Amino acid sequence: MKLVLNGGGVGKAVESARKLLNGIIDHNKKILYVPFAWPDPTFSGCLEFMTDELSDIDKAGIDMVKTPEELMGKDFCEYACLYIGGGNTYKLLDCLKKSDAFEKIRRYLLEDDGIVYGGSAGAIIFGKDLDSCNTDDENNVGLVDHTGFNMINGYSLLCHYTSREPERTELSRSHLLELSKEKPVFAIPEEDTIYVDDDMIKFVGPRLYSEFVNGTEKMKYCDDAIVLVPYVDEDYEFVYEVKKNAYKKYVEGCWGEWIEEDQRTYFEKFIRAVRNNAFIIMNGTEKIGFYNGEVTESGNYEIGNICIIPEYQGKGIGTKILKEKLEENKGRDIEIQYFKQNPVGTLYERLGFVPNGDTRYHYQMIKYGKKEES
Predict the structure, then answer these.
(1) Handedness of CA 86, 20, 221, 230 (dihedral sign)
(2) What is the pTM assigned to this prediction?
(3) Are 194 and 221 in contact (CB under 8 A)?
(4) Using CA atoms, how far apart are residues 273 and 301, in angstroms rounded to an integer?
(5) Which residues fall within 8 angstroms of residue 227, CB to CB, at 6 or more apart?
(6) What confidence tens digit (pLDDT) does each residue in 351-372 have?
(7) How far is Cα 204 from Cα 222, in angstroms, rounded to an integer?
(8) What values do phi and psi take at 44, rounded to 5?
(9) Which residues are CB-neighbours of 286 under 8 A, at least 6 positions away?
(10) Tens digits of per-residue pLDDT, 299-322?
(11) Count of beta carbons in the 10 Å neighbourhood of residue 274
(12) DSSP designation for 76
């Protein structure tokens, strides 16, 4: 079973979702398009729109069905995947449940290892139920049984979250905070996608999504959103400004003055020394910070700088990178040096770093899981 559940975006905004789909389908087969959520019962223009939308998918073509009866007559296994589009979620689920199409899709996924792409309404129906979207969609069809396929670990799902005007976002947030006291909910923006591969669930995309549990909202980055790419010379000014923003107050606190010429000279020496182990922190296509770390001659791993631009500070990015580096360097001694004035020490403590008995000037030296020797 493979599900690609997108937040309802179109075009360039969801290239990552289409790329994901393109990587898992049989390119010699057609895609079967199910537009039942669309409000126009004639589905005029839907096939033309979808043909353009999926133009970068390697496929044999697109077939579109217009009725549940037509869908029931199809052998899903003859297709690369089912593509279930957006619109009114209640209308979509009602169409599927009034026939045996709902159960046929379930059997296709669970028994035939099927592939389904769902966008907006086509994604929401794979959550536990539709209660998450009742501030978005009207139940004009009188649907009584709101239960969905329940294929994302017992969570309900809301799409388009934070992608619309602030008033709509706040309405959704208030509703989901209350709803989550009874059941958990994922809320994803239009650019993000939930990928389900049997029991594995992965979040893909450039923006923060939200998890609502027990009356609280926790915003999270997708699994692929924050990545490290190698530093190149064109990044010089960006990195200098990021480091300046991160360390100027500490330099002034220790030495009394930030002298631009001296700091430039120091930075030039620094970047030459670390450039082969230096990385730009990216959120999608946006540069948001700098990281450097290296394996030393002794075989230890030394974490150098983790600098994040102000707009992305306090969002757990540094913690995410540190955890990844700790995992990558299991078995090595891992050391960090930081300004004593910097309150990040509490973060390092939570991750398992302790003082190693060595402090230098204005810096604190700590090691991962290494207790100070007596």
Answers:
(1) negative
(2) 0.73
(3) no
(4) 16
(5) 281, 282
(6) 888 887 666 667 777 888 754 4
(7) 5
(8) -60, 130
(9) 206
(10) 999 999 999 999 888 888 898 899
(11) 16
(12) G
